[in-house]
Amino acid sequence: MVDVRVIGPGEASSDLVAVGLVAVAGADGPELSIGTDVASVGLDEPPVPAALRRPGFAAKAGQSLVLRSAGGGPDVVVVGLGPVEGLDHERWRKAAAALVRATGGPGSAALVLPEPLCGGDPQAVGAAIAEGAALAAYRFDDYKSTPRPSAVDGLLVVDPTQGSSALADGIARGMRTAAAVAFARDLINTPAGDLAPAQLAERFVAEMAGTARTSVEVWDEERIAAERLGGLLGVSRGSLEPPRLVRATYEPAEPVSIGGTTPHVVLVGKGITFDSGGLSLKTAEGMSTMKTDMSGAAIVMAALSACADLGVRIKVTAIAPIAENMPGARALKPGDVLTMRNGATVEVLNTDAEGRLVLADALSLAGEIEPAPDAVVDVATLTGAAAVALGTGIAPLYGTDPELVERIRQAGASVGERLWPMPLPEDYAEHIDSEVADMKNTGRAGQAGSIAAALLLERFTSGLAWAHLDIAGTGRAAETSGYLTKGGTAFGVRTLLALVSSYC
Questions:
Q1: 101 assigned to active site
Q2: Quick one: 186 and 323 in the same domain?
Q3: Residues 216/204, Cβ–Cβ less than 8 Å
Q4: Domain co-membership, 96 together with 181
Q5: What is the pLDDT of residues 274-289, one digit of tens each?
Q6: CATH number of the domain that residue 132 is part of
Q7: Which of 93, 356, 409, 440 is an active site residue?
Q8: 173 is catalytic
Q9: Of 60, 139, 228, 282, which residue is the catalytic one?
Q10: What is the pTM of this model?
């Protein structure tokens, strides 16, 4: 991962790439704001405006333009930030990502910040720059005999304030957040043949090892059966790989007190390490990306792993039910009925609607925690209907508590992960009514598929404040763009970290 750190004016060597940030579009073309001491990065003067008025370059957020040096000095990468008005943290992320993409190879770059600093407080800007650069530099080359050329190795942020600790603190937080995202992305991108449920559980344990004030326990198949997790056991029946359930807890060193108690948030993540659809078999094309169906589990565990380093001041628990969904001889058959942890029965009419079954057990466990948690949030690549409704750039957000839903929506907005609140209409509850059990695991054909799944999950939330993120559309990128690299996105890690940090 690219190393991002702060330096003062005059500390950068002249062989580094100097980076200008375009802040406004002037009457005669883009105007450059590059800071007050361009000599600190080896430039005699800022690039002339005429050089910026190239066809297609309009200083839009995330645009970049490389100006090659003719006199032996450093090349300049001009990165667009768009209009000063409305300049937010997401534009800084995109600008840092554009810089990394533009450099295109190993080496270092010096990012000269404009003075005065635009776009918010220095800590938030620093975090956004670090996140954008580190996430854009992400590579998953574990299975390539010849790894792809690395992105820029180091990004030196030239601080015009000469000594603001807030900028450095923000960069440190952004780097830790990006590391959590990278951990989740690595797991999501790993082939399912090398990441069975037991192996995924081991990776979680290894990641938490040595993490301050964090404990982890793993339930094997025998314990899962003893705990009556009928959904998790049922989904795993068709696989030779036994299921696991991982439960991790973070206790803050300096807990915040709200109303005399420390808030407790429980995160639940779907962990289907491979989803064939079971006997309701997917097509070959439909299965091609199903190693990513454990994204929710990776996301909640990655978020929890960063809580100590980020100084989160509330208690956080993460629960990940993990299984393979395969069409083996003992696999669930359409029409089978499962008894879940809370005693409710579910008629399984489609074995490819398995995620809600394992989540139901995990949500039931969350509801049994004493004292009752303040909020329960689950994350899952749950329904194709989510992508049909909102595409691949926005995730549906459901919930029973308007205040929690809005807090999560704002957390997502602050980190550039867009969430759209969705309804849970009471009259749609009949969509999952079953003739033979308490409910069925499918809704009405062709109607409100994402809502039906959320309504089923709601029945296992024990009346707690609960929210559900359906990331089936946002959890995977079909192409590299901005700070997303093709493959698993780990969408939700940064939102959850912003959420648990918002209680401080």
A1: no
A2: yes
A3: yes
A4: no
A5: 999 999 999 999 999 9
A6: 3.40.220.10
A7: 356
A8: no
A9: 282
A10: 0.94
